[in-house]
Amino acid sequence: MSKHERWSALLELLAAGGRLEVEEAATTLEVSAATIRRDLDELAEQQMLVRTRGGAIAHGVSYELPLRYKSSRHASEKQRIAAAVADLVADGEVVGLNGGTTTTEVARALALRTGSGLRDTATAPTAGSVPAPVGPVLTVVTNALNIAGELAVRPQIKIVVTGGVARPQTYELVGPLTMGVLNEVVLDVVVLGVDGVDPDLGVMAHQEDEASVSRLFAERAHRVIVVTDSSKMGKRAFARICGLDRIDVVVTDSAISAEATGRLTDAGIKVIAV
Q1: What is the distance, to the nearest Å, from the Cα of residue 50 to the centroid of all Cα atoms in its chain?
Q2: Mean pLDDT over residues 155-162, rounded?
């Protein structure tokens, strides 16, 4: 196993459990403990993890693993959340999606729900009339390169990608070019993945540039749906996106506490737990 393969495997293990022990990792990867210690030291130098006595842990609230290493966390919950969100989107709507593992699952669910056919954009033709044109079932506006890549090959979905500078951790485009495009569009609904949901501060992201883009997504949309697994309820992150008053629906998993559900409901938000 090469160093690159070991590092990827170690980060996958860290993403799944949040903590690594040297001896356990050495057994799993079938290498020496000394090799694991050296790998963890080098990953810590690159700020990919925090070294501890006997192992490593993920960074604190302001830290995020690259998207490809977070995909295994709460995977089944995110797939159920995505299926529930797909049912909230009507044919013909313009849907905004920011980046993240949960919104990526939403994009996949939307693609599967719409199938491979196109829809009529007008009423059925009458005798002697010109056949109605066909068009995409949905229009998706996103700043996430991975989502755009997955949906670009779906003829039933019109995909609009914002410009901007790419962040390698999340594949999201950010910056003035991103904001410029979003200022020129109107969305029926936006689906936002977030890093924290606080009953007082609202929803948050780890990075301020991503939070700014998500905030503008929310401002340009008629309806705002927040998607997150229950582990992020009550958590705070560095940058605020918007308050709870801007959110219409929260879709999460069934492990959400009654207290958290009550706080969101009291704020006028519909909570869907799957």
Answers
A1: 24
A2: 94
